[in-house]
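>> received
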Amino acid sequence: MENKKLIRFVESFVLLPIMTIAMPLGSLPKDSVNVVVAPQSVLSQKQNIRASSLLAFNQAMDEKANLLKIKADAIDAYFKDHDMPLLGTGMKMVKEAEANDLDWRLVAAIAIRESTGGKFDCKKVENNPFGWGSCKIGFKSVDEAIEKVAKHLGGNMESTAHHYADKNTEQILKIYNPPSIVKNYAKQVISIMNEIGDEDIALTQEANT
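>> returned
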């Protein structure tokens, strides 16, 4: 009897692992498999969405950078063709125009009209190729002049916002230099803007290629 009990006891250890191995293979519910697979699928989808979003973002940034360069190059090409000292400031002018919701050619065209692109800056003050403040206001650098004038024209300086805020290009120019002082000032500056390039210069270039 004792031998039979011992044999049965040993057999229980042999059969138990076989049962525990066989059960998951043949009797697990189908839903339990999905619990393992589904999170991996969701993670993969999320990763794909993130990758697609990042790619789209990078493409948009590249397009924006390319457009800024096209505009800056057009301004600098005008300065170069006319031997103007402001050559090299095209990108600064374009960035400040964009930051203040201005036509990208406006700041450059004013500088061309007022000082022939820096050839004839205000004499009594420094770094003012725009004639800003009737040539009574100077700046630490040309870059600062571009930045400050663009902010004023965009209506983003508290002291002059009541003059320039929410105005189109022609209205801005008529405030900058009223017809009572220079009759055709706005037309003159706009004409220079058109010489620099079309407002939608990127579309124009695509059409010509």
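>> The chain has one domain: 57-208.
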